[in-house]
From TrEMBL:
This is Glycerol-3-phosphate dehydrogenase [NAD(P)+]. Substrate binds at K110, R260, N261. Catalyzes the reduction of the glycolytic intermediate dihydroxyacetone phosphate (DHAP) to sn-glycerol 3-phosphate (G3P), the key precursor for phospholipid synthesis. NAD(+) binds at G12, A13, G14, S15, W16, G17, A145, R260. Pfam families: NAD_Gly3P_dh_C, NAD_Gly3P_dh_N.
């Protein structure tokens, strides 16, 4: 008798969660996609596509949409958390009463929790009783959902403190068009993959102000320096910043037309206020709230992050973008590496 396919559950039916659910279903796994709102789950199951967030990508027959969180999590060998970073704790609390000893959680949300300054893996380990570090992984990298859904070449990194877990995640997600590498530096991968969203907002602000390639290159390069300083302070491997969750994700998020964070920054640069920008968006720009969390974390750790600080001031203190840029450019001269 043929062995039944592994059951994988994706929590969160936004564009990225939907894309990964479809990718995994095409690989032959039994996939459950959980949507927070029952009426949205019903529409997804009926339409057999996500018309709101990923129109045109049809669901394979082995992808089932569910609205009950326990029904989604209970049979799964692997749980992919694709909810917004600020909603991860609440979502995890919703299934904390289930036994998880035989499961692996692969987080794909990129952010720092606002209230605690914790990385997503820390939130999971704190929220789910008995969950061990070797059961937690992250899947990060330059991977816009729109392109992955179209089977365009994409590379990401599967990261876990356990190499065995990282290798399993690599095997599960790897396809001809979705190439997965392995890393064990979870601190570095999570910090790089989260802070890059803030730098992307800065890149968008530069676009909105009408600046050119010189300014964009400066923001990306000095953004690398900021992420590297914070990562080092937290004990990350310096090589991680040169990888897919570092330089790779930073470049694509700062440059791409698909980047929600860059788009928010562009509107800020054009003089719009944050509230009116967010009111027009249907999806989450993770860098907005992460800027609050990262600035607070950097201040507590004594890490200098002037671009992140400037983004926070423009978003939440209504500092005019031209003044913020002037203040950045007229800071005391420094050596490049310090």
């Amino acid at each position: 008798m043929a062995e039944s396919p592994m059951t994988i559950t994706v929590l969160g039916a936004g564009s990225w969660g939907t894309t990964l659910a479809v990718l995994l279903a095409h690989k032959g796994y039994d996939v459950r996609l959980w949507a927070h709102r029952p009426e949205f789950a019903a529409a997804l199951e009926s339409d057999r596509e996500n018309k709101r967030y990923l129109s045109g990508t049809l669901f394979p027959d082995n992808l089932h949409v569910v609205a009950d969180l326990h029904d989604a999590v209970r049979p799964a060998r692997i749980i992919v958390t694709a909810v917004p970073s600020q909603a991860l704790r609440q979502t995890a609390q919703g299934f904390a009463d289930l036994p998880l000893s035989d499961k692996i959680i692969v987080n794909v949300a990129k952010g720092i929790e606002l209230e605690t300054g914790k990385r997503m893996s820390e939130v999971l380990l704190e929220t789910l009783p008995g969950l061990k570090p070797e059961q937690v992984a992250a899947l990060y990298g330059p991977s816009h959902a729109e392109e992955v859904a179209q089977h365009q070449p994409t590379t990401v990194v599967a990261c876990s403190p356990s190499e065995e877990t990282a290798l399993l995640v690599q095997e599960v997600f790897h396809t001809q068009s979705f190439r997965v590498y392995v890393n064990t530096d979870l601190v570095g991968v999570e910090i790089a993959g989260s802070v890059k969203n803030i730098i992307a907002i800065a890149a968008g602000i530069s676009d909105g102000l009408g600046f050119g390639d010189n300014a964009k290159a400066a923001i990306i390069t000095r953004g690398v320096a900021e992420i590297s300083r914070l990562s080092a302070k937290l004990g990350a491997d310096s090589l991680t910043m040169s990888g897919l969750s570092g330089i790779g994700d930073l470049v694509v998020t700062c440059l791409s037309r698909h980047s929600r964070n860059r788009a928010v920054g562009e509107q800020i640069g054009k003089g719009l206020k944050l509230d009116e920008i967010l009111s027009e968006m249907s999806m989450v720009a993770e860098g907005v709230l992460s800027s609050k969390a990262v600035v607070k974390l950097a201040d507590r750790l004594g890490v200098e992050m002037p671009i992140s600080q400037a983004v926070y001031e423009m978003l939440f203190e209504d500092k005019p973008a031209p003044q913020a840029i002037l203040d950045l450019m007229t800071r005391d001269p420094k050596p490049e590496h310090y």
